Amino acid sequence: MDQAGMLREMKTNVMPAAIRQKRHNGNTRVIAVTSGKGGVGKTNITANFAYILSKMGKRTLLLDADVGLANIDVILGITPKYNLHHVLSGEKNLSEAVVEGPGGIKILPSASGVQEMAELSKGQKFTLLEELDGLDEAFDFMLIDTAAGIADNVIYFNMAAKEIIVVASPEPTSLTDAYALIKVLYQGYAAKRFTLLVNMAKNSNEADGVYTRLSNATNHFLDLPIEYLGYIPHDQNVPKAVRKQKLLSEVFPDSKASKSMSEVVEKLCRKQPENHENGTIKFFDRSIIDKNN
Ligand SMILES: Nc1ncnc2c1ncn2[C@@H]1O[C@H](COP(=O)(O)OP(=O)(O)OP(=O)(O)O)[C@@H](O)[C@H]1O
Ligand SMILES: [Mg+2]
């Protein structure tokens, strides 16, 4: 084949695949938002972060990974026709289940009250990763709202993500549970990069105290430093927005909590994600499924 012919061949066959891989490799920041203790604000934080990112022009997918007890649809006041359950059962493909939310966020809703979703099988985990990797649309961010605790599904989604934001409130139990979750992910699954976000703090002093106590514990007992992403103050506008089934940043953009969320999101955007040591991995590293079973 002459040189022009080779170039044509590359353009038609090789280039699209290469471009697709580039789009899906490393360019999407996959971030899990998680916590040891429940009710610390993960769902509100993840949904508002997705909205703020979207408003900044970042293409964002919000994945409700509290499978079995989904909440994202409730706080957004949407009633999606299909959800993750339909995708995993093979009834729908992922793009059919993804819906558009406020500010142009793309949302993959989950199912509530579906017992079989509470424990995803190995096959379902593979299907989900395949479907996410196969999405035609390119995303800058994929935010994953996990359930609380150290159940199998929570570990799976945290390990699937490249970055983990641990949310903790100033309550002592939230702190000990955050430590327990980090310990399990670090010792059992070799997760290394944790970022702490303190929610519902009275002020920056109280939030700094939470970070100091948690990082002292991880440094001392696990020899593992953790990063501090910032804090969101306790703000009555958060439950107010929840009752309206609207996003805080949409209905109360000038509230203290909403402004802090925007600052944290800006910081998150400035933070350079770790380079992927293996260029062949797509969104996710499938080896986590074996480790997680
Ligand atoms: N900064 C805040 N100030 C005041 N209330 C807040 C704040 N953040 C969250 N809340 C309230 O805390 C409650 C729990 O929030 P959310 O559902 O987001 O937590 P979660 O961590 O996702 O819970 P779960 O573990 O059950 O999934 C909600 O009623 C919400 O209004
Ligand atoms: Mg939640």
Can you characterise this structure?
- The protein has 293 residues and is an alpha/beta fold.
- The chain has a single domain (27-291), classed as Rossmann fold (3-Layer(aba) Sandwich).
- It contains 13 helices and eight strands.
- The protein has helices spanning 3-24, 42-55, 72-76, 84-88, 94-97, 122-133, 152-160, 172-189, 204-222, 237-244, 248-251, 256-270, 287-291, and strands at 29-35, 60-65, 99-100, 106-108, 141-148, 163-168, 194-201, 227-233.
- Strands 3-4-2-5-1-6-7-8 form an eight-stranded mixed beta sheet, sandwiched between helices.
- Helix 8 (172-189) links the parallel strand 6 (163-168) and strand 7.
- The longest helix is centred in the N-terminal third of the chain and has 22 residues, at 3-24.
- The protein binds adenosine-5'-triphosphate and magnesium ion.
- Adenosine-5'-triphosphate binds at residues 35, 38-44, 66, 71, 147-148, 199-200, 232, 234-235, 238-239, 242, 257.
- Adenosine-5'-triphosphate binds next to helix 2, strand 5, strand 7 and helix 10.
